[in-house]
Design brief:
The complex is a heterodimer of chains A (about 350) and B (about 300). Among the domains of chain A are: about 60 residues, no CATH class; about 90 residues, no CATH class. Chain A has twelve helices and twelve strands. In chain A, the strands form two sheets. An eight-stranded mixed sheet of chain A has the order 6-7-8-3-9-10-12-11, sandwiched between helices. A four-stranded antiparallel sheet of chain A has the order 2-1-4-5. In chain A, β11 and β12 form a beta hairpin. Chain A is globular. Chain B has about 300 residues and is an alpha/beta fold. Chain B has a domain of about 150 residues: P-loop containing nucleotide triphosphate hydrolases (Rossmann fold, 3-Layer(aba) Sandwich), CATH 3.40.50. In chain B, about 40% of the residues lie in helices and about 25% in strands. Chain B contains eleven helices and twelve strands. In chain B, a hairpin with a 4-residue loop joins β1 and β2. The radius of gyration of chain B is 21 Å and the shape is globular. The chains are: A alpha/beta (about 350), B alpha/beta (about 300). At the A-B interface, α8, α9 and α10 of A face α6, α7, α9 and α10 of B.
Chain lengths: ~350, ~300
């Protein structure tokens, strides 16, 4: 078994809304091993970004309450003071942000921005820093690195900027990368390039990666293990192959059925009934997905849904996955029965 | 007869500079595209950001000035019409916008949003108007009392359906849908796409579907035009484009669709590398010395490619 790099244990992130705290991340436990890409998928509002912000300590400290543990290198990141935390993030944990335009400083040249984390975390001379920066730029696939070093973000295309953001995250040889929707703001062909680049770098550097995304295509291309989140909770954890071949939780299955996949033609897509509950209106008792699959009888859900190991290393929450079916699959059958009787 | 015929449409924006801010050059946002829409079909316009797909859509509906070319709607050239003449046709062409958060006026309630096109074009009594709006709201699957609510009280998918109800208000023949689901979550996307297919059958609508998402385009469209730098690189039926892509740019776009089978991900990565190689070596077969695409050439009855 590989060594765990990051262990998130029963993390609960609550936001203060008009005096009351509501949990956006509600008891999430995830382990990331070295050289492993763990994807966290879910739709907007499921808590995946709140999770990333809590791990990095980037949440608003005044209005957010954190419980649980985030163990990294033998210390709980949640209890560290800001200055101690600053020694970890940017060095051992790198972060790749969604939008490369807002993640970069428009007033500083690219070289300066890549060298900045080195100033904090490494003792290097100016020439060593420059040498390292140029090498990083080459490594993220930028060919004219001397020129890019002197350029400002607005002079680069979106794909180039995202490469620079990746170079910054890699600047101090992190053991863990946190990538929050790294390809969402990019064009399809650029997205493909960045995905391939990240796979290649991951192969070389053997870092653990937490990949946060809403795009199941990106998950299928990049992840080793997948964590599916719904309404603040983990509903399914599985190896990427198992998840796509044999998805168990009704939410995972519904999501996969609602993507227009190739070769299908003009068939109807699956629509998940109802809407994602907001964290204030969320019913925190019982199976949180139950209101959106109302045709499944109440007794098929657990009162307090637990994670079950349905297959080796394949975990799923609540028992409703056992009897779940799509109503549209049964329509034909019922008609058949009706005409025969 | 085709519903809409676009002939050599160009939209150029001037670049000004120098003394007296003279026009020194043009940005050729749309640089000579031609296509036809048959009644009842869905035509997909695909490309990456900056390829001119949105500019083309906006030119068709009159939001952009056309530099040259023809846009024949039922045989009449929209490009040559004055604003007043054009008004007779704006009823028949409606648009669904990308972002349901910014395309609905937050200070108006749903009744006023959906009734606005009716007020512009039809003289209805308040009672008739209310009835029409109620019909439309019911058709897009919102509850009757929602007509007195405001946009912020709805979810993204519901808002997009309000936008669709507004587009349907005047019984249009052609709907231009500019990235109608890009701002939505996958499950909500499915809802809106299904719904668009339903109303297409019901009202016999023709769609010009603009998107960068090749998965959605394949799901929705009968025929597809691929755009790059303001020109068409390839045009054909969905199966021509997806099963038999000819232009290297089309191949590159299709190879960029994420592979949904995790076991084939490295295969896909190698395919992409091979296509990038081809792009480098065969560049001269696809682009002339100014980097401009060649004109489309027919390779079969339905399929054309911009090649030497």
């Amino acid at each position: 078994m590989k060594n765990p790099v990051l262990e998130i244990k029963d993390l609960r992130t609550s936001f203060n809304i008009k005096g009351d705290y509501y949990a956006a991340v509600d008891g999430v436990s995830i382990t990331v091993h070295e050289n492993e890409v763990v994807a966290i998928v879910g739709e907007s509002g499921c808590g995946k970004s709140a999770l990333a912000l809590s791990v990095m300590g980037l949440h608003d400290r005044k209005s957010t309450k954190l419980d649980g543990q985030v163990n990294f290198n033998g210390q709980n990141l949640l209890t560290l003071t800001r200055s101690r935390l600053d020694k970890v993030r940017g060095k051992d944990i790198g972060m790749i942000f969604q939008d490369p335009m807002t993640a970069l400083n428009p007033l500083a040249i690219i070289g300066r921005q890549i060298e900045e984390p080195m100033d904090y975390h490494m003792k290097l001379s100016a020439s060593e820093k420059k040498k390292r920066t140029l090498e990083l730029l080459r490594r993220v696939g930028i060919k004219n690195e001397q020129r890019v070093y002197e350029q400002y973000p607005h002079e680069l295309s979106g794909g180039m900027r995202q490469r620079v953001v990746i170079a910054i995250a890699l600047a101090c040889d992190p053991v863990l990368l946190l990538a929050d929707e790294p390809t969402t703001a990019l064009d399809v062909t650029i997205q493909a390039q960045i995905m391939d680049l990240m796979k290649e770098l991951q192969n070389q550097m053997k870092t653990g990666i937490i990949l946060i995304t809403h795009d199941l295509g990106v998950v299928a291309e990049m992840a080793d293990r997948v964590v599916v989140m719904y309404a603040g909770e983990v509903v399914e954890i599985a190896d990427v192959k198992d998840l796509f071949e044999n998805p168990l939780h009704p939410y995972t299955r519904s999501l996969l059925n609602s993507i227009p996949s190739n070769m299908e033609g003009k068939e109807k897509l699956h629509v998940i009934d109802g809407i994602v509950p907001s964290i204030q209106n969320l019913d925190r008792k019982g199976c949180r997905f139950a209101p959106r699959i109302a045709w499944i009888p109440e007794e098929d859900h657990e009162e307090i849904p637990e994670m079950h190991e349905a297959a080796p290393n394949h975990f799923v929450r609540c028992s409703c996955y056992k009897t779940f079916y799509f109503p549209e699959d049964r329509v034909g059958e019922r008609e058949y029965v009706a005409t025969n009787s | 007869m085709s519903l809409l015929t676009v002939n050599d449409l160009k939209v150029h924006y001037p670049i000004r500079g120098g003394f007296f801010r003279k026009v020194v050059d043009h940005v050729r946002a749309v640089d000579g595209i031609s296509f036809e829409l048959q009644p009842g079909e869905t035509y997909g316009l695909v490309g990456e950001s900056g390829c001119g797909k949105t500019t083309s859509g906006r030119a068709l509906i009159g939001l952009n000035k056309v530099t040259s070319g023809e846009m024949l709607f039922e045989g009449k050239d929209l490009a040559k019409m004055s604003r007043a003449e054009r008004r007779n046709y704006t009823k028949d062409i409606q648009m669904i916008f990308q972002d349901p958060y910014s395309s609905l006026n937050g200070r108006k309630n749903v009744l006023n949003i959906i009734a606005e096109p009716l007020r512009n074009f039809e003289r209805l009594s308040p009672k008739e108007e209310l009835l029409r709006v109620q019909e439309l709201v019911a058709r897009v699957g919102l509850s009757p009392e929602s007509i007195y609510k405001y946009p912020h009280q709805f979810s993204g998918g519901q808002r997009q359906r309000i936008g669709i109800a507004r587009a349907l208000a005047l019984n249009p023949k052609l709907i231009i849908a500019d990235e109608p689901v890009s701002a939505l979550d996958v499950s909500v996307q499915a809802q809106v796409l299904n719904f668009m297919q339903e109303i297409q059958e019901e009202f016999n609508l023709t769609y010009l579907f603009i998107s960068h998402d090749l998965g959605i385009i394949q799901h929705m469209c009968d025929r597809i035009g691929i755009m790059y730098r303001g020109r068409f690189v390839e045009e054909g039926t969905a199966s021509d484009i997806y099963n038999n892509p000819q232009h290297v740019y089309t191949k590159r776009l299709i190879a960029a669709i994420p592979e949904m089978n995790p076991e084939k991900r490295f295969e896909k990565m190698h395919l992409r590398q091979a296509i990038n190689q081809e792009y480098q070596t065969e560049y001269n077969n696809y682009f002339d010395k100014d980097g401009r695409m060649f004109d489309l050439k027919r390779v079969s009855d339905t399929h054309s490619v911009a090649m030497l």
